[in-house]
Amino acid sequence: MLPGGVADTSSFRAAADIYIESFPFGSHTAALEAGRSGLPLVLAYYTPTPFFSSRSEWLDGIVSRPTTEAMYVDQACRLAQDAQARKQAGQAVKQQIAACHRGKAWRTDLRAALDHLESMTHAPASIPVFEMKEDEMDIATAQWHWEVDPTTVSADAHRTALKWLQGSACHLRNQGHYADSARLLWHLARHTRGSVAIQKQIFKLAPHWAAGKLSCLLPFTRY
User: Fold this and answer.
1) How far apart are CA 116 and CA 208, in angstroms?
2) pLDDT tens digit string along 169-181?
3) How far apart are the C-alpha atoms of 18 and 78, rounded to whole Å?
4) 42 pairs with which residues across the strands?
5) Rg of the Cα trace of the chain?
6) Whole-model pTM above 0.70?
7) pLDDT for the residue 134
C-alpha cells in the first residue's frame, strides 16, 4: 500500500513492532520518532559516510550498528522472534532519547549552540571558488555504491555525468583555474581512454601551458 503523504504517522508506529532503518539511505528523524515511541531500532549497516544513516549521541551505547548486511538482517530477525528483547530494547532507546532531549542535557546543548552563534560575525559574501579536491568521503561513497551494485550506473547516467564534468572543466578554465581544469580533464581522459571531446578541451589549455601557467598539463601529451 502506498498511502502518499501522511501528516500523522503515529498510527503506523503504534502498529509496528520494530523500526528497521531503510537502506542504503536512512532517516534520522524517522529513527528518532520511532525510538521516542518505544520501538526497538535496527540501524542501516555501516557505510563509508555518516550521511547515509542515523548517527547521534542518543544512539551511543544503546543501539549497536551492524557492520555487514548479514548482521543487519540477523538483528531484525532476532528482534522479530523475541518479544521481551523488543520491549527491553525499545524502552532503553526511549529513555535515552528523553534524557538527551529534555531537562539539563537539552538546556546544555542549546546553550552551547547559542554561545557558538553569538560568537560568530554575520558577514554576507559571495561563495568563493574553491580548489577542486578529491575528498576521501566522496571517493569512498562512490566506491561503496559501485561495490553494492555496479549496474546502478546506467549508460545514460554515465553520459550525463561525463557531460557535467566536462562542463565543470570548461567553467574552471574560463574562470582562470587552469590547474584545476587540467586535473579534472586528466582524470576524465584516463577514464574515457582519451576521447576526442576530452582531447579538444585539453588542447585549449595548451597556450596556458606554453605561458608557464600550467606545468601539470604535461601528462596529457600521451593522449
Assistant:
1) 45
2) 888 878 877 777 8
3) 11
4) 20
5) 25
6) no
7) 66
